[in-house]
């Protein structure tokens, strides 16, 4: 079937079978590889994108369910005020270790700060608990989110 997807502000005609995960359309059809495959069962968060401003796991979101929605990937996150602040904080604090999970971490952090601009450490840990980091940079991720909150407040 042919679908119209709006991804990072651009409308694309894509051909996909019903039940195709959005992740595979983003990576294989549209060639945007910042969104990562991690577990395939929505448990690790590496595949997180925004659909109408809400973080979702693209490995378990079917492409036909997001036709007509605004999909945002990590490639466009610097154009978003909160996304730019999170990315700035990540660089300032050297949050990344291996980096594989970081696009999903950033997408979830933006979702958190969109809902709660001044989260506590506990609120950050609760919100981000669905994002796995094999390198265990959780403390640096928490500090990065706190720093992004400060940048946005300034």
Automatic annotation (TrEMBL):
PANTHER family: BLR6218 PROTEIN, OXIDOREDUCTASE WITH IRON-SULFUR SUBUNIT
GO terms for MF: 2 iron, 2 sulfur cluster binding; metal ion binding; oxidoreductase activity
Superkingdom, natural source: Bacteria
Species assigned in the record: Tritonibacter litoralis
Protein name from the UniProt record: 2Fe-2S iron-sulfur cluster binding domain-containing protein
The 2Fe-2S ferredoxin-type domain, residue ranges: 1-77
Keywords: 2Fe-2S, Iron, Iron-sulfur, Metal-binding, Oxidoreductase
SUPFAM superfamilies: 2Fe-2S ferredoxin-like, CO dehydrogenase ISP C-domain like
Entries under InterPro entries matching the protein: 2Fe-2S-bd (IPR002888), 2Fe-2S-bd_dom_sf (IPR036884), 2Fe-2S_ferredoxin-like_sf (IPR036010), 2Fe-2S_ferredoxin-type (IPR001041), 2Fe2S_fd_BS (IPR006058), Beta-grasp_dom_sf (IPR012675), Diverse_Oxidoreductases (IPR051452)
CDD domains, A to Z: fer2
Keyword Oxidoreductase in record: yes
Cited Pfam families: Fer2, Fer2_2
Cited PROSITE patterns: 2FE2S_FER_1, 2FE2S_FER_2
